[in-house]
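Quick one:
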Amino acid sequence: MDNTIVDRGAGLLRWAEEFTQDHSLGVDAVEWLMTADEDGLKARDRYFAEVRHRFTLAATPDELHHAYQARYPRHMHCPQSVLDQLARLHDSGWTIGVITNGLTTTQEAVLEHTGLIAYLDGWSISEAEGVRKPDTAHFERAASRCGSSLDGGGWMIGDSVDADVCGAKGAGLSTIWISRQRTWPIGLPPPDHAVGDIAEALQFMLTHTAP
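Output:
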């Protein structure tokens, strides 16, 4: 989901700007908050412990995290054009699901706020399932949540080399990698297709027949 069907970086920037203003942190705080986030890969408890220490805040890391969970999803958006593409895919026979690593409360709030829920057959969130990408079990669980299975094949669209593409390949799925202007790592089996953004990926899928 993050940095694939929704632009997590843009949403985080809007949250960081709001957080900086609310706490009167100064002009350099936004860049620090973005960099320290490590593209969402840093554990949230560690991240907010570092935030508290960096800016000498009175709130505890847990309190900062709780406030983040309440506000961050509201800064996430999914373009209507992408939602329209999902609707066309669904109408053409595709089963559509989201598989994501993250916290259940936060990720479900993002799905709700962006309007994605209305266009999905199901979703699978790592905290709720007790398993994370690239584990094949998470892909199997995601298919099950959509009322389907991996037996008939399918496609995975994602931006992570390891969690999305390599994980999906291990689960027997075809893959579309959203490059985000990066180069595919040398020595790894390449994805079946590479694109610049989600709109291009969904347009590619519209040329394929659902399994």
